[in-house]
């Protein structure tokens, strides 16, 4: 991504509304990918936070009404704040501005109800590894968003990892896998560390062993071209130690527990959308 104002097809100027951890991750990724700091404005109710990001990245903090002039407006606020932000945006936003919302559970219909005109709207569900440039995001374009606008938003989120285009009907499932997925893996890592301590390792030793194992396994899964099943089978010798461990997991319902967890996450995502 080059400077956002350099070419007619670029995604800027950009307005980032909400400067929390995810907002900063996006900001950092955009700048690293080549967007000019002068093409990004930020809005946040917490003035010291705005000052901090201005000094760190060279971007400019503005009032919300000034941000409505941006070509692409990214809402990185909490779900319960979206309605109020849309109410303020609707007073001065231009017809060509694309509104991108990353708040969980806020549907395209709800976004459209809060905005005037036939506003181009795009929903995105990112995840927390975006904070280290390894995120996974699902992108859903509203009916009034053009293919070019959708592709520009995909590019924005690829600056902090990867992004795929999905239908809104698939977003609850995507939320349950990639949106909440990091928490499942952290939960498993936490349990592995605890198990190592129970077997006599120090917590520091167990933590180092597990953290590197999770990192290495993740890289293998992402880059080897092999399926998770094939990679798991290669570690599992018949009658060996790994087979014994996996059999214990099956006996304790780990696989069925994961299926139930994803189903529960989907249900909760659907409830939030309603």
Quaternary status: single chain
Major sheet attributes: 8 strands, mixed
Binned, the helix content reads 40-55%
Instruction: Tell me the overall shape.
Output: elongated
Radius of gyration, in Å, reads: 21 Å
What is the tally of beta strands?
8
Strand content: 5-15%
Straight-line distance between termini? 36 Å
Q: What's the overall average pLDDT, rounded?
A: 92
Structural class of the secondary structure composition? alpha/beta
Largest sheet: spatial strand order? 3-2-1-4-5-6-7-8
**SS element count, helices:** 12
- Low-confidence stretches are 1-11
Elements, N to C (H/E): EHEHEHEHEHEEHEHHHHHH
Structural account:
By secondary structure, this protein is α/β, with parallel strands linked by helices. The protein contains twelve helices and eight strands. The protein has helices spanning 21-32, 47-57, 64-67, 79-89, 108-113, 147-158, 171-179, 181-198, 203-223, 228-235, 241-251, 254-273, and strands at residues 14-17, 40-43, 60-61, 72-75, 98-101, 121-125, 135-141, 161-165. It has an eight-stranded mixed β-sheet. Strand 2 (40-43), helix 2 and strand 3 (60-61) form a beta-alpha-beta unit. Helix 7 (171-179) crosses helix 12. The longest helix has 21 residues, at 203-223. The protein is elongated and about 70 Å long. The chain starts with 13 loop residues before the first strand and ends with a helix. The relative contact order is 0.09. Mean pLDDT is 92; it is low at 1-11.
């Amino acid at each position: 991504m080059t400077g956002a104002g350099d070419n007619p097809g670029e995604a800027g100027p950009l307005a980032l509304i909400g400067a929390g951890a995810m907002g900063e991750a996006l900001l950092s990724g955009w700048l690293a990918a080549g967007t000019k700091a002068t093409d990004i404005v930020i809005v946040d109710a917490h003035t010291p936070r705005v000052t901090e990001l201005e000094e760190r990245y060279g971007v400019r903090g503005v009032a919300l009404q000034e941000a409505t002039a941006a070509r692409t407006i990214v809402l990185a606020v909490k779900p319960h704040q979206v309605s109020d932000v849309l109410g303020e945006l609707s007073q001065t936003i231009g017809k060509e501005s694309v509104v991108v919302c990353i708040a969980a559970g806020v549907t395209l219909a709800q976004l459209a109800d809060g905005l005037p005109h036939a506003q181009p709207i795009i929903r995105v569900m990112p995840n927390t590894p975006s904070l280290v440039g390894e995120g996974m995001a699902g992108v859903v374009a509203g009916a009034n968003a053009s293919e070019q606008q959708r592709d520009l938003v995909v590019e924005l989120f690829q600056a902090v990892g990867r992004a795929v285009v999905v239908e809104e009907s698939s977003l609850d499932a995507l939320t349950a896998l990639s949106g909440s997925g990091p928490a499942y893996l952290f939960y498993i890592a936490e349990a592995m560390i605890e198990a190592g301590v129970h077997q006599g390792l120090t917590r520091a030793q167990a933590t180092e062993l597990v953290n590197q194992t999770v990192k290495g396994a993740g890289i293998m899964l992402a880059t080897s071209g092999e399926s998770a099943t094939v990679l798991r089978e290669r570690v599992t010798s018949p009658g060996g130690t790994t087979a014994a461990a996996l059999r214990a997991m099956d006996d304790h319902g780990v696989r069925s527990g994961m299926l139930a967890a994803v189903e529960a996450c989907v249900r909760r995502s659907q409830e939030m959308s309603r």
